[in-house]
Amino acid sequence: MHLKQTFPGVFIFLVSTLWASVAPAQWLNDEQAIMGTSVRVELWSDNKTEGRLVIAQVMAEMRRIDRLMSPFKADSALTKINNFAGSRPVKIGQELMNLIDKSLSISKKTKGAFDITFASAGFMYDFRQKKHPSKASLKQLLPSINYRHIQLNRSKQTIFFKDKNVKIDLGGIAKGYAVDLGIAILKKNNIQYGIVTAGGDSRILGDRKGRPWFVGIRDPRNRQGLVAKLPMRNEAISTSGDYERFFEENGVRYHHIISPKTGKSVGYMRSATVLGPDATTTDALSTSVFVLGARKGLNLINNMPKFEAVIIDNQGTMMYSNGFENLPPTDRSGAK
Length: 336
Ligand code: ADP
Ligand code: MG
Hints:
The chain is built from 11 helices and 15 strands.
């Protein structure tokens, strides 16, 4: 019995050590559909088996975040909040508490352009089914869009909504947060070079072995085209666009970035890209800059030393933050 158990173990150990010694160091990658988007991990690993395990850990972490934060899953913690926090304080874990707290601080910084309570009316949009709220329901729900309705109690670990119709959605920040967790897993496993991407949010660890990593900004009106390719190392980049989830009705483009002031899709922008040290912040800021529009959005980013932005307005005009103007995009890699 004892022998039977140990033999396969020893055998697997011998085979895997042998394999590791012959398997060359290499780039490994995987792509999976998680969080309603495409998650991609690419990394350089000295050992194929270990590298694959690290990628699997990142994918598992993304699934965990989805189970916790999805507004579409009936048993997620977020759904529980939306069902009950309008009537009583709801207990939440440290992780959700921290991310909601971070969302609130970005709401303050952006004067309410970023607001997770957009979902109070936002839940009535369904871009696949081509549904949007009626004028009457928007009017009724608009007062419930206001991040000040959210009350977090740190000592009791609870969340409460002061208005019973409030709903929240972390779609503007959760993917960036998941990307940061992915990079933390890479670091913990001593990976030196890699990229983790979830939809429009990416973060790069190191570089592409001595060369910068080039990340493209999509042309908002041409699926195949790019408007820029930015060389990056050790940095995060997020793009919010009006072309990911949208439909058109009577000449109006309904898409997933909602102005908290009107409850309607923002009409004056096509895309907003933000670069910075971490993906949680660049994700929330790309959504914020999109809502703020070119002038206010660039002003916000120009006052944040470690962040840069590239904006395309509804005329197709491209605008950059100050860091890009002083520094041609191709020189960025050497600067950081
Ligand atoms: P994606 O990577 O999904 O394209 P974005 O970073 O562009 O995401 O953010 C869009 C998502 O942010 C929407 O799907 C929605 O969940 C959420 N959102 C929309 N408007 C706002 C807003 N004003 N404030 C905060 N979150 C928003
Ligand atoms: Mg975002």
